[in-house]
Amino acid sequence: MTLRPLSLCSALALALAASAAGAQQTPPPAGDAAARAQATLAKMKAEDKTVLTHGIMPLPFGPNPQPLPPEAIPGAGYVAGLPQLGVPSLRETDASLGVAWIGGIRKDGATALPSGLSMASTWNPDLIEQGGRMIGGEARAKGFNVLLAGGANLMRDPRNGRNFEYLGEDPLLAGTLAGHAIRGIQSNHIISTIKHFALNGQETARKFVNSKIGEAAARESDLLAFRIGMEIGNPGSVMCAYNKVNGEQACANDWLLNRVLKQDWGYRGFVMSDWGAVPGLDAALKGLDQQSGAQLDPAVFFSKRLADAARGDRRYASRIDDMNRRVLWAIYDNQLDRDPAKPGGTIDFAANAAVAEEVARQGIVLLRNERGALPLAASAKRIAVIGGYADTGVLSGAGSSQVQDAKGPAVSIPLGGTSPFAAFLAQAYQRSVPLDAIKALAPTADVHFRDGRYIADAVNQARRADVVIVFATQWSTEGLDQPDLSLPNGQDALIEALTRANPNTIVVLQTGGPVLMPWLDRTAAVVEAWYPGARGGEAIASVLFGKTNPSGHLPITFPAAIDQLPRKAVDGFDELEPDFAGNPPHGTMTLTADYDVEGADLGYRWNARKGHKALFPFGYGLSYTSFAQGAPSVTGTTASWTVRNTGQRAGATVAQLYLTGRGGKAERRLVGYRRVDLAPGASQTVTVTIDPRLLADWQGGGWAMPGGRYTFATGASAEDIGQTVEVSMPARRWHDPHLFASR
Ligand code: BGC
Question: Which residue segments constitute the domains of the chain, with CATH numbers given?
Fold first, then answer.
C-alpha cells in the first residue's frame, strides 16, 4: 500500500471533523442559544410565527395521499423551517430502539438495538450512550434532525404493552439510562425528545385514561425519572403523553407542563405533542409548544387558529413568542443549523451491528441455572431447538418504535386485521437467526429444529436429544396491553411437556416484560433475552455456549402471581375492545388508573411494602462466576464498598446499593449502582454518589430529608440484601435547581 500526502481538501475535512468533535465535548453556552433564539424571534413576521408550532406526519395518508413537501422524509414528523431566517425544517423519526421502519415505506433499513428492557438490564450508562450515538448517527445520515426517543416512563404494570420500549421500574436506573441515551443521540447535533411526559402507564384507553396520583408520589417516581434523564441528557424537546394526569390531558396540562416542567424545573426546550394527543387550541396556554402530526388531531389548532388568537388575545400573543423561542432554543442549542443533517450519509452497518450485539449480550439475564446446565459444552451431541421461529429470526416489539434492516422482517405475522393501524400491528422477526448461531458455536453437534406447533412432535425430538433449547416468545405492542402474564399460544404447555420429556431443557425467553413460569422448577436453565435486536441470535448463542458470561440484571420485578400486583387487570382492559388508537368508544366515557394505590412504590418497592416475594426480583441476574460484596461505608452522600469475583471465570456484575431503613422505618430504594468487570479472584472498590432526592420525600413544594438514622445495604438484588451500615443524617430541605443553572 502506498501512502499519499493529504490533499488540502482532506486536511481541511479532518480539521473540521476534529473541531466538530471538539464541539461535541463542550456544548456551547446555553446563553448563546437563548440569545440567538431571541434575535431570530425579533426578525419574525406575524405569519412566520406559526410555522414552527405545528407539523404533519409525512406519510401517505388515506386513498388520495397528498404529495409530501420536498424536504420532508417519510417518517413520524415534519415541521417546515424558515429558510429566510436560516431556520432548518424539523425532520422527525421515531428512534428509541433505532431509526424506525414505518412499514418499509422509505425502503431503507436501520440497526435495531435490543428493547429498552434489554438496554436497562445492562445497567451500563456508557454502553447505552454509545447506542444513542449509533442511532443518532444513522438518523443523521438519513437526514433526520429530531429523534423521538428517550422513553422514560416507569413500569407500573407488567402487562403494559409498551414496557419493552422503556427502561424499567426504578427512577434512578431508568432516569440515568434515558439521560445517557439522549446524550448519545444529541452528540450528533440533532435533537432528542424525552417521552411520554408523564405517567403514561398503560396502553388500554391511552387517549383518555386518567392517571390519578398525588403530587408527592408523582415527584418521587415517574417525574423523578424524567428529571434525572433531563439533567443528564439535556433533551431539546419533551414529548407529552396521550393520557390525562389528574383530570387534564397531559398535552394540555397546566400543572405538568407550565408548573412542573417550565416553572419548577426551568426547562428551556419545547414541548411537542404526541401524535393525536392535542385536545384544543388552549393546550398552548397550558404549556404545549408544538402540535405534532396534526392530521391525527381533530383540527390543526396551532396554525391559523393560533395566529388569530395571538392577534386578539395577549395571553396567546405572549405564548406564541415563547413557543417559537423554545423551538429555536432547541435548534440552536443542538446546532441543527450550523451542522445540518443531510440525507445520503454513509452508515457503517457492521460497526453498528456490533453495538447492538454488545447491548444484547450485556442485556441478557440468566434467571436460572441448575447443576451448571449452562454454559453448554461445544461438544453436546444432539441438540433439539424448539419453537419461537428460532430458525428464522428474533422477535421485536411492535408500533412506532419498530426497526428493521433494509430487507425488512424475516417473518411478519399481521395481527391488525383491517384496522387503519394494521401496518403497525404485526408480529415481526428481525433477521438474526438463533438456530444458525447455535450451529456455528456447536459445529459438531447434531441440531434438530421443530417449530413447536405440535407438542407430540416436539416432545419426540426432546426425548432423543441431550439438550433441549426451547425459544418462547411473548409479543407486545404499542397500543395494546396484555391480559395476563402467561406465554401465549400454548407455549406454557409446550415447555411443561418438554421438561417432562427431557430434564435438560433450557428455556430462552423473548418477551416484552415479565411472564409467569409455571414450569420453572422442572427446567435446567432459563435465559431472558427480551427482544434482542439486530444481532440477538448471535448474542443468545454466545451466552448459551459461554462465549459471553451473562451479566444482565433485571430492571423490573417478575411477580410470582398476578395477585401480587397493585391491580388485578389493566384498567379498562376487560371492558374495552382492543383499539390501537385508544380513543373513547363514546365521548363521555371516563376511566381512571388509580396510581395512588402504589404511589411511588413501584415494583420492588411495592413488594417490600407488602412483604411479597417475587418470582425474580429487581436487580437479580446470575453469572457463570460468582461475586461477593463487602460492607458499604457511607460518608455524607458518598458510598463505597468492594466487589470481588469469587469464581473461576472473568465476568461482570452490578453492584447495587439500597436504602433499607430511615428513622426506624423499613424502606427499599435503589440509591446507587455500578456495573463492574472483574477477572477471577479480582476485587474492586466501587464508589457512588447518592442523589439525596432518593433519600428524601417530596413535601410542601420541595425535597425533605428527615434527620435520623439511615440504613444502607449492598444487594445482589432488591431481595438479596447483603451487609448493612447505619449512619446519621441531618434534616435537610431543598428545591431542585433549575435545569440550566450550571450552564
Ligand atoms: C407514539 C410516540 C411516537 C409517535 C410518532 C405515537 O403513537 O406514542 O411514541 O413517537 O406516535 O410516531
Answer: 43-333 (3.20.20.300), 358-562 (3.40.50.1700), 625-743 (2.60.40.10)
Total-model pTM: 0.95
Nearest atom of ligand 1 to the alpha carbon of 479: 7
Q: Which residue bears the cell 450528533?
A: 188
- The answer, yes or no, to whether any atom of ligand 1 lies below 6 A from the CB of 148, is yes
Q: What nine digits make up the cell of 336? A: 441543527
HSE-up of 466 (CA within 13 Å, CB side)?
Answer: 12
Take atom 6 of ligand 1 and give the residue whose Cα is closest.
275
The residue whose C-alpha atom lies closest to atom 8 belonging to ligand 1 is 274
CA 139 to centroid of chain Cα atoms: 17
Which protein residue's CA is at the shortest distance from atom 5 of ligand 1?
76
pLDDT at 3 over 60: no
Instruction: Work out the number of other CB atoms within 10 angstroms of the CB of residue 134.
Output: 26
Altogether, the residues listed in the chain come to a count of 743
pLDDT, one tens digit per residue, over 101-129 is 999 999 999 999 999 999 999 999 999 99
Smallest Cα–Cα separation from 199: which of 574, 561, 592? 592
Model confidence pLDDT, tens digit, residues 211-251? 999 999 999 999 999 999 999 999 999 999 999 999 999 99
Looking at ligand 1, which atom is closest to the CA of residue 206?
A: 8
DSSP conformation letters of 677-695: EE-TT-EEEEEEEPPGGGG
Say if ligand 1 is within 6 A of residue 94 CB.
yes
The answer, yes or no, to whether any atom of ligand 1 lies below 6 A from the CB of 274, is: yes
Q: How far apart are CA 125 and CA 130, in angstroms?
A: 9
pLDDT digits (tens, 9 = 90+) for 383-442: 999 999 999 999 999 999 999 999 999 999 999 888 888 888 999 999 999 999 999 999
Q: Quick check: 291 pLDDT over 50?
A: yes
Atom of ligand 1 nearest to the CA of 94: 10
Reported as type and span, the H/E element at residue 193 is strand 191-197
Is the CB of 121 within 6 Å of ligand 1?
Answer: no
Q: Ligand 1 mean position to 93 CA, how many Å?
A: 9
Is the pLDDT reported for residue 145 higher than 60?
yes
Ligand 1 within 6 A of CB of 237: no
